[in-house]
Design brief:
Distance between the termini: 27 Å
Order of helices and strands: HHEHEHEHEHEHEHEHEHEHEHEHEEH
Largest sheet: 11 strands, parallel
Strand content: 5-15%
Structural class: alpha/beta
Strand order of the largest sheet: 1-2-3-4-5-6-7-8-9-10-11
Length: 452
């Protein structure tokens, strides 16, 4: 593998957590501190194991296991156990690595649970060790979300190595864990061996150039990964090597459906590298190049490739700087040539009325483009009227855009609504569905397993 290398240091396996001197009672227990009523097998197993190991009962976990037991009693299967540490709907007691040790013990042979979401907790490398052991012993788990759990390079190594022999997990989210370049290299090496994982999210993991190149190299051969997120690597220099290697990968790979390259410091040269590959690629449907430095010159290349590419369905250009000229390039292609793109986001691109109106006009002849997101640009009255007309005539559905028209003193204005391609990537809403179609249109239009 190019840029690869073995790491001499081996992560130490943490010992089982020490027993506390006292056993605190759970806040969900009755006021007289009597033993809680046991209503289901998971809750009972959790209680018994906490007592046997002299561990404190986590009240949040206790409450959620009760809900899962009720679902199991109804005969439901394929259940995802959600234990988010950032829930605002109930009191949260974040789980630690030691808590996850207890949790993994009761889950490893449970046939009803195939998904586990423990985002925003305090698992650290200790929890990663037990997560790795769970992956080795639980043969029903297909979805694991470890997002923002203070897992470092050693924990990343443990999880990556556990996936060498795991044949069931399909979707893994490591977002926000600082596994760095060292951990990234172990995940890249894992993809040479694992043939079951379909979606991998390593966004905000402080990957280095070496590991990004390693992923690009491995994905030229791996034919099972359908979605990968490499957002915000730590890159130095202005050579845009990451886009060169990922562009080469897209020429060779015929399986990848979704590629996320947010915050790659990508400029026009980088988007040109990707566009050159997209002339040949016939599998990629979702391209995310948001939060980069792409300008109107880069849109010349993208507009040209969209004339011949018939597979791209979602493009996220949010937080670049394509301006009016770049918007016009895209509008002309969408109006006269392309009939495959379904969603386009140009949020915060310094586009003024002329470019935004041109984009709205293209939707009148292009009936395939269904989702357009424009908030954060410079609206004039012509823009407001144009998008108001699209919505009122039914050409643009209210759930498929991030603006809503309203009238004050006879003048039309646009207000922002919480719709987008991936509004709930980092957080969950306090009400409603976390994976609603209007707020996460990208994953709805191009589904690759659970929304990661």
């Amino acid at each position: 593998m190019r840029g690869g290398g073995k790491v001499a240091a081996r992560a130490k396996s943490p010992s089982p957590p020490p027993a506390p001197t006292t056993i605190p009672t759970t806040s969900w227990a009755p006021a007289d501190r009597s033993v809680p009523e046991i209503i289901g097998s998971l809750q009972e197993d959790y209680y018994n194991l906490c007592m046997a190991k002299s561990r404190k009962i986590n009240s949040f976990v206790w409450h959620l296991l009760q809900e899962v037991d009720e679902e199991i009693e109804k005969g439901l299967e394929g259940i995802t156990l959600n234990i988010p540490g950032n829930s605002r709907l109930m009191p949260v007691e974040r789980i630690t690595g030691e808590d996850f040790w207890i949790l993994s013990r009761i889950l490893k042979k449970n046939p009803y649970i195939n998904g586990l979401d423990v985002r925003y907790n305090l698992m650290s490398d200790v929890g990663a060790y037990y997560a790795a052991r769970l992956l080795q012993k639980q043969h029903k788990l297909i979805y694991l979300n470890l997002m923002f759990n203070d897992i470092g390079p050693e924990g990343g190594e443990l999880i990556a190595k556990a996936l060498h022999k795991n044949t069931t997990l399909k979707y893994l989210r490591m977002t926000g864990n600082k596994i760095e370049n060292k951990g990234g290299m172990f995940f890249a090496a894992m993809l040479q061996i694992n043939s079951s994982l379909e979606k991998l999210d390593l966004g905000d993991c402080d990957l280095g150039m070496q590991s990004v190149i390693a992923f690009a190299t491995v994905l030229t051969q791996n034919q099972t990964i359908k979605g990968i997120n490499l957002n915000r690597p730590i890159l130095y220099g202005e050579q845009e090597e990451s886009t060169v290697h990922l562009g080469h990968m897209l020429k060779e790979n015929h399986c990848l459906v979704a590629l996320h390259m947010c915050k790659h410091n990508m400029k026009n040269c980088g988007i040109k590298q990707l566009c050159d590959a997209l002339y040949l690629n016939r599998s990629l449907r979702y391209l995310d190049v948001s939060c980069n430095k792409i300008t109107r010159d880069g849109m010349v290349c993208l507009a040209d490739v969209l004339k011949s590419n018939t597979t791209l369905e979602v493009i996220d250009l949010s937080f670049n700087r394509i301006e009016d000229v770049g918007a016009k390039y895209l509008s002309e292609t969408l109006a006269s040539h392309n009939r495959s793109l379904k969603a386009l986001s140009v949020v915060n691109n310094n586009i003024k009325g002329e470019g935004l109106v041109a984009l709205s006009q293209s939707m009148k002849t292009n009936h395939i483009l269904s989702n357009v997101y424009i908030w954060g640009n410079k609206f004039d009255e012509a823009t407001c009227v144009a998008y108001s007309d699209l919505i009122q005539t039914g050409r643009l559905k209210p759930d498929n855009t991030d603006v809503e028209p309203f009238v004050v003193d006879g003048h039309v204005y646009l207000a922002e609504v919480s719709n987008g391609l991936k509004k709930h990537y980092y957080w969950r809403p306090t009400y409603g569905e976390a994976c609603s179609q209007s707020s996460n249109a990208g994953s709805i239009l191009v589904p690759v397993g659970p929304d990661l």
